[in-house]
Records
---
Amino acid sequence: MSKVLKIDKNVHEGVRELLRSFLENKKVKGVFALKKINENGAVAYSLITNPNMVEAILPFFPFMPANAGKLLSHLTLTGSLKGPIAAVVRPCELRAFVELVKREQGSLENFLFISSSCGGVYSLEKSVNGDLSTDSELWSKYWDGVKNPENQMADVRPTCKACEHFLPYSADMTVLLLGNKAIDTECKISLNTDKGEKFADGAKGEFIEEEIENEALKLFRNKRIEEKKRLFAESQIEKFGMDGLIKTFGRCIGCHGCSNICPICYCNLCTFDSRDYEWEPSTYETEIEKRGGIRVPPNTVFYHIGRLTHVGISCVGCGLCSDVCPADIPLSTIFLKVGESVQKVFDYLPGKDVEEAIPLTTFETEELTEVED
Amino acid sequence: MKGEFTPKIVGFLCNWCSYAGADLAGTSKLKMPPSVSSIRVMCSGRVDPVLVATAFLRGADGVLVAGCHPGDCHYEKGNYYARRRFAILKKVMETLGLESERLRLSWVSASEGPRFQEVITEFTEKIKKLGPNPVKEKTSL
Ligand code: SF4
Ligand code: SF4
Ligand code: FES
């Protein structure tokens, strides 16, 4: 049983009311959340301090313009923010932030994390080319899917449909969206930590006890696990081999959008953007002599294998790499699959627990003898 | 011709142990297949998976990473990190259906000339069975 704050408003209004009261009562200094940019469905993360601006906040707008984890890392790169900030983020964004903090790329201090049981998001393509305003068909379809596991969010991104980590692991508050048929009239927020309870204290609403892992959530979880199995089976990644990799990445235009958008790829001086990655003329000569010809620029497969070995251990499956790829390469499916297999070796779930070291930064003296010869 | 295939193996050898071990094998005139091109690194912990992937994709038939025995690393822990990185690369390759058998991690100390001889001989035999790395033929990597 968890402690739950129930506000008699729809989820969007309920969360806005809570955020507004935080600002008005000076419980927080700022609010970090998705904010409407204009009427046709453009949103961006924003950091606001003026309570009057809360009106424009759309806390669960089904689109991810950036991984908030990366943005929060930028905000706290050289130290924590001074006042408490209420940050409304998705579970995979929170996990990404935790991964970045473990890599000393930010600070969790002075945040109140508000997340939700997440219904996923639409792809960048759908959000930009379709009509995704709050009175659009896409919008109502989305919320229909959030309420009913049967409709399991028909059009959200494949990665989201296959994501079983839809409950946040380290949020102070979780807005209960998935499977809650009453979200149009009530807003339920589970208070997961002492901090969450402290902030909710005095809020307008009723405090009740409720089981978070209810039947509806179990249904969602099963559906998503099934979907992941289907997605992996369909993508046949384990059968790629070199020919499959060349086929899959053959249409990569080398824009490096996938690594730029990836929250885990945080290095400013990425080896794949550096001079090291370029071949000398003499290397071209050796290679064409060996092979009889070579793709120019070369190293496409190498870039992706490199990225998989560097970020696979921490990939949170946020799906942004697929979102931005102009060549429509199913990157996040590949990263999720390879990421999970690597994470399994160390029994590691990225972003779950800030105290748990990233496997690459620690070791056991006796382990992995199976990789030694 | 298949019978004449001499594998090309790239060996990342740690300066303090395996490189010295290789040297000892050489000066002791131990018989070994001439298959290894060694790259001397200051510690096996220096071997970023990306280096191994480079060798593999440029067409090395086998890639060897060799360092001091666990507990004996000159920098105390480098080889423990190396082992984890290596395990990750192997897993990535396995999951992508690539021939991860072409990678090998071994511990060879500075005094273990015969051990170096054994590692090279064994690995070369294994790669001979696998045949040349088909990656060499690919033109659209
Ligand atoms: S975003 Fe797509 S096209 Fe751009 S580098 Fe990544 S895989 Fe290649
Ligand atoms: S690799 Fe793709 S799915 Fe994984 S964290 Fe980076 S952007 Fe998200
Ligand atoms: S110095 Fe030899 S493995 Fe570290």
Note: Chain A touches chain B through 47 residues (CB under 8 Å).
---
Amino acid sequence: MQRYLLSRLIQSVVLMIGVLVLVFFIVRLTGDPARLMMPRDASPENIQAFREAMGFDAPLHVQFFNYMRGALTGDFGRSLHYRAPAMSLVVERIPATLELALAALFFALVVSIPLGIIGGTRPGSIWDTLCRGIGLIGQTVPNFWLALMLIVFFSVELRWFPTFGRDGLRSLVLPAIALGFFPLGKFTRLVRASVLEIRNEDYIRTAYSKGLLEQHILTRHIFRNVAITLVSIVGVQFGYMLGGSIYIESIFAWPGIGRMVNEAVQARDFPLVQAIAVFTAGFVVLLNLLTDIAYAVIDPRIRYEN
Amino acid sequence: MNSNVNSNKNDKPILEVRDLHVRFDTVDGVIYAVNGVSFDLYPGETLGVVGESGSGKSVTMMSLLRLIPEPPGRIVSGTARFRSREDDLDLLQLNMRQRAKIRGNRIGFIFQDPMSSLNPLITIGEQIKESLERHTKWRGPEARQRVVELLEHVGIPDPDARYGNYPHQFSGGMRQRVMIAIAIACDPDIIIADEPTTALDVTVQAQIVDLTRRLSEELGIAVIWISHDLGVVAGIAERVMVMYGGTVVETGVVDDLYAHPRHPYTVGLLGALPKLHENVPELVNISGTPPSLFAAPSRCPFEPRCPWAFKTCRERRPALESVQRDGHFSACWYDMEKDKPREVRR
Ligand SMILES: Nc1ncnc2c1ncn2[C@@H]1O[C@H](COP(=O)(O)OP(=O)(O)OP(=O)(O)O)[C@@H](O)[C@H]1O
Ligand code: SF4
Ligand SMILES: [Mg+2]
């Protein structure tokens, strides 16, 4: 167990360093980062001034050294647009984004797990048809379209929820549903398939042969095994949700990182984009690590691995 | 078939299966997996069940407590009278709850592959305790103590420490011992063991056979032992039942049946050279393919592969009939002892 966790931890650190290096070089890939970052109609003097201000005129290895030193202390330079330290801008937005992503995840799990289990235990039934239908819809309906439909129906027509902004629980409902709908479809399909598969396992037949009751077999024997498959995809989907929230946060004017990406890209605010990229990548790496830890908690075969 | 002639025991059978029919509805058509199987099991005895792959051994035994997948499986007809000290009931008439009370309690099961038959995420101790807590009054620490005793009983060293281990921490043989502990946990009347040694290597096989025999004698449990291996069956069973194409073709006391096989299929299985008559063809390896199960047998299912086949075999299906020695039955139109077709009663 310790060795397993240590190796995963080292893996994460290496991955993170890789991300930092990659971000550094991607900006410089075109040769001249100053020209890339400045507006197209900027004068050569302005560009030169900017180049010096940003330190792009120093030798590459000096730039790299400065960049890495900054990165380790969380310093990714100042946002050109907001004129504030880029990383602290990102950090300010974390609670809103996390709140939305967690709410969306919660919604997706709470609906998909029971649905997938019902579908998987009664294949061919009406419930199963419903389960498969929702799985399909969840995966085919684009979330920005869904967001607009939700706004039109629940906010404009029924006036149940605000149309935009982050103001208490009620404002969270629609964006969370819009963002959580795709993972909901994905989880439903996965849980259903996984229940179907596990029900055919020999150890489930053993459980029945012991005279255990359906309910007990479901919770004690089937669901734990389904959880392993579920954990593997929840982390990945959570990472995607951060990306997917670019649209959703923009549509609902949700003051999170997703909306800031939009603004930063449009303003060519490279230090900010960089900080967001590093933060998001770091978050995904962290999710991976958490997923691996969850595996170990659920699965003794990993826990007792030599 | 007449009951109760076929045992040297005076008891009534603990299990009387009559005319069991089981089918599978598949996309390719209906599979007639079990076609009118009847047999008796007496208290405390071990009945070996042999037959080639697909002959319906597992489906027959798993159907008794509906452990086949339904659908596609379908138990069409039959009775399975289970008669123990407390119960006298037809297993096939039980509802789900009643069945769950018999499973693992009065009738225990052991399966072929000990690697996949235990839940990888639950400690073996818990997997045994689960059964106890379902069917007995044992709870908590007392149940745990009982599980430790069971583990000791089936020969698992250091049982107290092993209680909290997971299946992957055991070898195949040890896992099969755990399965046996589960099967005997609630002091059952019958254990159904479906090829319990097939997945194990030879030395371990012998240990599992010995253990099962010892336990069944000690605890007075009747055992149905399904196997491919006639040698293993000879070592553990008192009586044997030979299946072919979803039917019982021959049954009898092991020594008698092995020494005097009466059904051409059994003769082939035993690889024996029939010495009854000169012109009898040799039948060491059974040539030909297993029967198609896509139609209900209307003739002798072994007819296409049988060297003795004659006209009647193609027209009518033979029933199990007593052959001279007590408790020896064969379903064949040909009388091997007299070396001529049997007289057909109307
Ligand atoms: N789930 C199923 N779906 C469809 N057909 C099945 C199913 N299970 C069993 N059968 C059919 O029933 C027949 C009898 O199978 P069974 O498992 O009883 O054979 P067996 O004698 O136990 O063979 P083996 O020695 O291979 O275990 C097989 O020919 C198979 O086609
Ligand atoms: S009934 Fe006929 S075909 Fe069938 S086993 Fe006997 S002799 Fe052979
Ligand atoms: Mg079988």
Note: Residues 2-72 of chain A form one domain.
